[in-house]
Design a protein that fits this description.
alpha+beta, BirA Bifunctional Protein, domain 2, Rossmann fold, 3 domains, ATP binding, ATP-binding, cytoplasm, ligase
Length: 445
């Protein structure tokens, strides 16, 4: 049995140190969350898995870590200044604020104010004088700095299309409608790939990336049965998109977008290029007199080609929520309930807990610390030395936070060099020779 509702996941996240409300001691800040000791490990493991799959396991992707503060001209020519605003109305009766096209039925039309435009991007002053003349935006997505760095990456790596540039980083949106815990927030992290392809091959690449991303989610423990593909209708597509497929997930609050895979055509590189009239740009782009670079490549016939872009874009926070929800299980054993997070081992915040059976026995404790240090040195992730006493409580705690195995050091260890290894999912226990423990641990990952 999985979580009944999102409140169960929220309770687990706070109780066990995954996620806290930001500035909670001052009443909290709506739409902002802090990742605790276990949450930061889970989040980093998800990002590492994405990076490994997207960059390390391919020969056609480079990485990037670009600035968060974004020059105004970048977001002007990307179209964000024109499109990242929503018409809002206030309900005089309930006191709530809504997007003009999302007013609930219980608000009467006569109680609504006239729509007003609201900017979804955060501005900040740049320089010592705060007079409004010099400002930057906190980036609303990680994609634009990938596009503005296209020429830098090509020149420094000698890449030719098809190839991609990947980035994981923070983005900021002044969201009005915040909902469902970390599903929609104001500060979030994105895992984005911009994959540049020859025009005309874009539709095949789009299909290939949809399948690739579905396979990745399955490898993170999200079953295909929990996922749906949504071909975004043409009247709902973003202004830059030729086609978009959203991977939808059955969150506790309903079926919502987990990741989008968009065919952005040549809109982005075309928008940020100089000498646009020389580049045979297929998309409708605004004139750009500020850029100093041609974001294009020469084909074998020496003609300029502006690559099309396939963009798989996933939110780290939504990934955390989906993976936690998928892993959350409540099992009944002898009329007692056991909460267990059946996370894939490579995602588990703690890879193994090493537990001395008797916390005040110097020999057992010393042996346990030595084993913990050896396993930690393998570099598989965090290994915890757990010396809190009650072995049953330790097992239950580590079941609940998703630790794949618990290793108990006891008096027999001192005699015959074996330890007890307990499996999280089956609760099966077996004796393993200490000399074989490292190999047993490695096989988990």
């Amino acid at each position: 049995m999985s979580a009944k509702n999102i409140d169960e996941l929220i309770a687990l996240c706070k109780r066990r140190g995954f996620i806290f409300q930001s500035s909670e001691i001052y009443g909290g800040t709506q739409g902002l969350y802090d990742y605790g000791p276990l949450g930061v490990e889970l989040k980093n493991n998800i990002k590492n898995s994405w990076w490994k799959s997207t960059v390390y396991e391919r020969d056609d992707v480079e990485g990037l870590d670009a600035a968060i503060l974004t020059k105004q001209s970048v977001l002007k020519h990307s179209g964000h200044e024109d499109t990242f605003s929503d018409p809002l109305v206030d309900c005089k009766s309930c006191g709530e604020r809504f997007r003009a096209d999302q007013v609930p039925d219980y608000c009467k039309k006569e109680d609504l104010t006239e729509p007003r435009q609201f900017n979804l991007m955060f501005k900040t002053n740049v320089g010592p004088v705060d007079d409004g003349s010099s400002f930057a935006y906190l980036r609303p997505e990680t994609a634009q700095q990938i596009f503005t760095n296209f020429k830098n990456v090509v020149d420094s790596t000698a890449r030719n299309i098809p190839f991609g540039i990947a980035q994981i980083g923070k983005a900021f949106r002044n969201e009005i409608t915040l909902k469902s815990f970390i599903f929609r927030v104001r500060e979030f992290e994105q895992m984005e790939l911009e994959f540049f392809v020859v025009p005309g091959t874009d539709e095949d690449w789009h299909k290939e990336w949809v399948e690739s991303r579905l396979a990745w989610w399955e490898n993170q423990g999200v079953s295909r049965e929990s996922l749906e593909l949504y071909d975004v209708p043409s009247d709902e597509l973003a202004h830059y998109s030729k086609a978009t497929v959203d991977i939808m997930y059955k969150f506790p609050h309903g079926v919502e977008e987990l990741e989008g895979i968009a065919n952005r055509t040549d809109f982005d590189l075309g928008s940020h290029s100089k000498d646009q009239k020389d580049l045979n740009i297929k998309s409708s782009v605004s004139e750009n007199k500020e850029s100093n670079a041609k974001l294009a490549l020469k084909d074998p016939d020496n003609n300029w080609v502006v690559p099309f872009v396939i963009e798989p874009s996933a939110g780290v926070d939504r990934a955390v929520l989906a993976i936690l929800n998928e892993a959350y299980n409540i099992e009944k054993i002898d009329d007692k309930e056991r909460v267990v997070l059946k996370l894939k081992p490579h995602l588990s915040p703690i890879k193994a807990a090493v537990i001395p059976l008797k916390k005040n026995d110097e020999k057992i404790v010393s042996r346990a610390k030595n084993i913990k240090n050896k396993l930690q040195a393998l570099g598989m992730g965090r290994v915890l030395f757990e010396n809190s006493g009650n072995i049953g409580k330790n097992y239950r705690r580590h079941d609940e936070i998703g630790t794949p195995i618990c290793i108990t050091i006891d008096f027999d260890t001192l005699e015959d060099g074996t330890v007890t290894v307990r499996d999280r999912d089956t609760m099966h226990q077996k004796r393993v020779k200490e000399s074989e423990l490292e190999e047993t641990f490695k096989k988990l990952f």
